[in-house]
Amino acid sequence: MSKEDVINDLYKFLLNYDLDGVVKAVNDVVRFNIDPIEAIEKGLAKGIRELGEKFASGEIFIAELMLAAEIMNRALEILRPSLLSRGAEVKGLGRVIIGTVEGDIHDIGKNLVATMLTVSGFDVIDLGADVSIERFIEAVKEYNPDIVAMSALLTTTMINQKKVIDRLKEEKLRGNVKIIIGGAPVTKEWAEEIDADGYGESALEAVNVAKTLLREK
Q1: What are the boundaries of each domain within the chain?
Q2: Residues 94-216, CATH architecture
Q3: Three-class SS of residue 98?
Protein backbone atom coordinates (compact mmCIF):
# COMPACT_ATOMS: atom_id res chain seq x y z
CA MET A 1 0.00 0.00 0.00
CA SER A 2 1.45 3.38 -1.01
CA LYS A 3 1.59 6.53 1.09
CA GLU A 4 -0.99 8.13 -1.21
CA ASP A 5 -3.35 5.17 -0.70
CA VAL A 6 -3.15 5.44 3.09
CA ILE A 7 -3.72 9.20 3.11
CA ASN A 8 -6.60 8.87 0.64
CA ASP A 9 -8.15 6.21 2.90
CA LEU A 10 -8.02 8.68 5.79
CA TYR A 11 -9.82 11.26 3.69
CA LYS A 12 -12.47 8.86 2.34
CA PHE A 13 -13.22 7.14 5.64
CA LEU A 14 -13.62 10.47 7.44
CA LEU A 15 -16.04 11.69 4.75
CA ASN A 16 -18.10 8.54 5.41
CA TYR A 17 -17.96 8.90 9.22
CA ASP A 18 -16.23 5.50 9.38
CA LEU A 19 -14.42 5.39 12.73
CA ASP A 20 -13.01 1.89 12.24
CA GLY A 21 -11.73 2.80 8.79
CA VAL A 22 -10.08 6.01 10.04
CA VAL A 23 -8.46 4.18 12.97
CA LYS A 24 -7.08 1.51 10.63
CA ALA A 25 -5.76 4.13 8.19
CA VAL A 26 -4.17 6.23 10.92
CA ASN A 27 -2.50 3.14 12.38
CA ASP A 28 -1.12 2.49 8.89
CA VAL A 29 0.31 6.02 8.94
CA VAL A 30 2.25 5.08 12.06
CA ARG A 31 3.13 1.56 10.86
CA PHE A 32 4.52 2.71 7.52
CA ASN A 33 6.28 5.73 9.07
CA ILE A 34 4.34 8.21 6.92
CA ASP A 35 4.82 11.88 7.77
CA PRO A 36 1.95 12.50 10.25
CA ILE A 37 1.71 16.19 9.37
CA GLU A 38 1.23 15.32 5.70
CA ALA A 39 -1.37 12.72 6.68
CA ILE A 40 -3.25 15.29 8.75
CA GLU A 41 -3.15 18.05 6.14
CA LYS A 42 -3.91 15.94 3.05
CA GLY A 43 -6.20 13.43 4.73
CA LEU A 44 -7.97 14.53 7.91
CA ALA A 45 -7.90 18.29 7.42
CA LYS A 46 -8.93 18.00 3.78
CA GLY A 47 -11.88 15.84 4.80
CA ILE A 48 -13.02 18.03 7.67
CA ARG A 49 -12.80 21.16 5.49
CA GLU A 50 -14.99 19.51 2.87
CA LEU A 51 -17.53 18.49 5.50
CA GLY A 52 -17.44 22.03 6.90
CA GLU A 53 -18.31 23.37 3.46
CA LYS A 54 -21.18 20.86 3.20
CA PHE A 55 -22.48 21.99 6.57
CA ALA A 56 -22.27 25.64 5.53
CA SER A 57 -24.27 24.90 2.37
CA GLY A 58 -26.89 22.87 4.24
CA GLU A 59 -25.91 19.49 2.77
CA ILE A 60 -25.23 17.96 6.18
CA PHE A 61 -26.37 18.69 9.74
CA ILE A 62 -24.38 19.81 12.78
CA ALA A 63 -24.65 16.32 14.31
CA GLU A 64 -22.83 14.86 11.31
CA LEU A 65 -20.12 17.50 11.47
CA MET A 66 -19.61 16.88 15.19
CA LEU A 67 -19.41 13.13 14.58
CA ALA A 68 -16.68 13.72 12.02
CA ALA A 69 -14.89 15.97 14.53
CA GLU A 70 -14.99 13.23 17.17
CA ILE A 71 -13.54 10.75 14.69
CA MET A 72 -10.81 13.20 13.70
CA ASN A 73 -9.92 13.82 17.35
CA ARG A 74 -9.62 10.06 17.89
CA ALA A 75 -7.22 9.92 14.93
CA LEU A 76 -5.17 12.80 16.33
CA GLU A 77 -4.85 10.95 19.65
CA ILE A 78 -3.33 7.97 17.85
CA LEU A 79 -1.00 10.21 15.86
CA ARG A 80 0.06 12.33 18.83
CA PRO A 81 3.07 10.21 19.95
CA SER A 82 4.39 10.11 16.39
CA LEU A 83 3.83 13.84 16.01
CA LEU A 84 5.57 14.64 19.27
CA SER A 85 8.55 12.42 18.46
CA ARG A 86 9.01 14.14 15.12
CA GLY A 87 8.73 17.56 16.71
CA ALA A 88 10.82 16.73 19.77
CA GLU A 89 13.89 18.46 18.39
CA VAL A 90 12.02 21.74 17.90
CA LYS A 91 11.04 23.20 21.25
CA GLY A 92 10.55 26.59 22.79
CA LEU A 93 9.44 28.46 19.69
CA GLY A 94 7.05 30.52 21.77
CA ARG A 95 3.87 30.41 23.80
CA VAL A 96 0.44 30.55 22.16
CA ILE A 97 -2.96 31.05 23.76
CA ILE A 98 -5.71 29.70 21.52
CA GLY A 99 -9.48 29.61 21.76
CA THR A 100 -12.77 29.90 19.90
CA VAL A 101 -14.39 33.24 20.65
CA GLU A 102 -17.43 33.90 22.80
CA GLY A 103 -20.76 32.68 21.42
CA ASP A 104 -19.14 30.03 19.23
CA ILE A 105 -18.96 26.40 20.39
CA HIS A 106 -17.19 25.08 17.29
CA ASP A 107 -13.70 23.79 18.00
CA ILE A 108 -12.83 21.46 15.11
CA GLY A 109 -10.46 23.81 13.33
CA LYS A 110 -9.17 25.24 16.59
CA ASN A 111 -8.25 21.78 17.87
CA LEU A 112 -6.40 20.99 14.65
CA VAL A 113 -4.44 24.25 14.78
CA ALA A 114 -3.59 23.68 18.45
CA THR A 115 -2.27 20.21 17.65
CA MET A 116 -0.18 21.42 14.71
CA LEU A 117 1.26 24.29 16.78
CA THR A 118 2.17 21.90 19.60
CA VAL A 119 4.00 19.43 17.38
CA SER A 120 5.80 22.30 15.68
CA GLY A 121 7.42 23.26 18.97
CA PHE A 122 5.06 25.86 20.44
CA ASP A 123 3.87 25.84 24.05
CA VAL A 124 0.11 25.89 23.52
CA ILE A 125 -2.51 26.86 26.11
CA ASP A 126 -5.93 25.87 24.78
CA LEU A 127 -8.75 27.87 26.38
CA GLY A 128 -11.42 25.81 24.59
CA ALA A 129 -14.55 27.10 22.87
CA ASP A 130 -17.01 29.90 23.70
CA VAL A 131 -14.18 31.82 25.40
CA SER A 132 -15.25 35.16 26.83
CA ILE A 133 -13.41 38.38 26.09
CA GLU A 134 -12.51 38.62 29.78
CA ARG A 135 -11.03 35.11 29.75
CA PHE A 136 -8.75 35.99 26.85
CA ILE A 137 -7.56 39.09 28.72
CA GLU A 138 -7.03 37.15 31.95
CA ALA A 139 -5.07 34.48 30.08
CA VAL A 140 -2.78 37.05 28.47
CA LYS A 141 -2.03 38.51 31.92
CA GLU A 142 -1.57 35.06 33.45
CA TYR A 143 0.51 33.32 30.79
CA ASN A 144 2.30 36.22 29.06
CA PRO A 145 2.03 34.59 25.61
CA ASP A 146 3.86 35.55 22.44
CA ILE A 147 0.75 34.91 20.32
CA VAL A 148 -3.01 34.96 20.83
CA ALA A 149 -4.89 32.81 18.28
CA MET A 150 -8.66 33.21 17.92
CA SER A 151 -11.08 31.11 15.88
CA ALA A 152 -14.63 31.92 14.77
CA LEU A 153 -16.80 29.69 12.63
CA LEU A 154 -19.87 31.93 12.58
CA THR A 155 -20.15 35.33 10.92
CA THR A 156 -22.09 36.49 13.99
CA THR A 157 -19.17 35.75 16.34
CA MET A 158 -16.36 37.20 14.21
CA ILE A 159 -16.96 40.57 15.86
CA ASN A 160 -15.73 39.11 19.15
CA GLN A 161 -12.28 38.72 17.62
CA LYS A 162 -12.25 42.50 17.21
CA LYS A 163 -13.59 43.02 20.73
CA VAL A 164 -10.71 40.99 22.20
CA ILE A 165 -8.18 43.07 20.26
CA ASP A 166 -9.88 46.30 21.36
CA ARG A 167 -9.76 45.19 25.01
CA LEU A 168 -6.09 44.27 24.69
CA LYS A 169 -5.48 47.83 23.50
CA GLU A 170 -7.49 49.28 26.39
CA GLU A 171 -5.48 47.19 28.86
CA LYS A 172 -2.23 48.27 27.17
CA LEU A 173 -1.43 44.63 26.38
CA ARG A 174 -1.72 44.73 22.59
CA GLY A 175 1.91 45.62 22.04
CA ASN A 176 3.05 42.56 24.00
CA VAL A 177 1.41 39.94 21.77
CA LYS A 178 0.95 39.00 18.13
CA ILE A 179 -2.58 38.06 17.10
CA ILE A 180 -3.63 35.39 14.60
CA ILE A 181 -7.24 34.81 13.59
CA GLY A 182 -8.93 32.11 11.56
CA GLY A 183 -12.18 30.26 10.90
CA ALA A 184 -14.45 29.51 7.98
CA PRO A 185 -15.88 33.04 7.44
CA VAL A 186 -12.65 34.85 8.37
CA THR A 187 -10.59 36.53 5.65
CA LYS A 188 -7.27 38.30 5.30
CA GLU A 189 -9.20 41.55 4.77
CA TRP A 190 -11.05 41.07 8.08
CA ALA A 191 -7.72 40.46 9.83
CA GLU A 192 -6.36 43.73 8.46
CA GLU A 193 -9.57 45.61 9.35
CA ILE A 194 -9.48 44.59 13.02
CA ASP A 195 -5.71 45.04 13.39
CA ALA A 196 -4.78 41.35 13.72
CA ASP A 197 -1.20 40.48 12.79
CA GLY A 198 -1.93 37.37 10.76
CA TYR A 199 -4.54 35.08 9.24
CA GLY A 200 -4.38 31.34 8.67
CA GLU A 201 -6.67 29.73 6.13
CA SER A 202 -5.53 26.23 7.14
CA ALA A 203 -3.83 24.67 10.17
CA LEU A 204 -0.54 24.40 8.31
CA GLU A 205 -0.73 28.04 7.21
CA ALA A 206 -1.50 29.10 10.78
CA VAL A 207 1.72 27.43 11.96
CA ASN A 208 3.73 29.12 9.23
CA VAL A 209 2.20 32.51 10.06
CA ALA A 210 2.97 31.99 13.75
CA LYS A 211 6.61 31.20 12.98
CA THR A 212 6.89 34.27 10.74
CA LEU A 213 5.38 36.57 13.37
CA LEU A 214 7.80 35.36 16.03
CA ARG A 215 10.74 36.04 13.75
CA GLU A 216 9.45 39.60 13.37
CA LYS A 217 8.84 40.11 17.06
Answers
A1: 3-87, 94-216
A2: 3-Layer(aba) Sandwich (3.40)
A3: strand
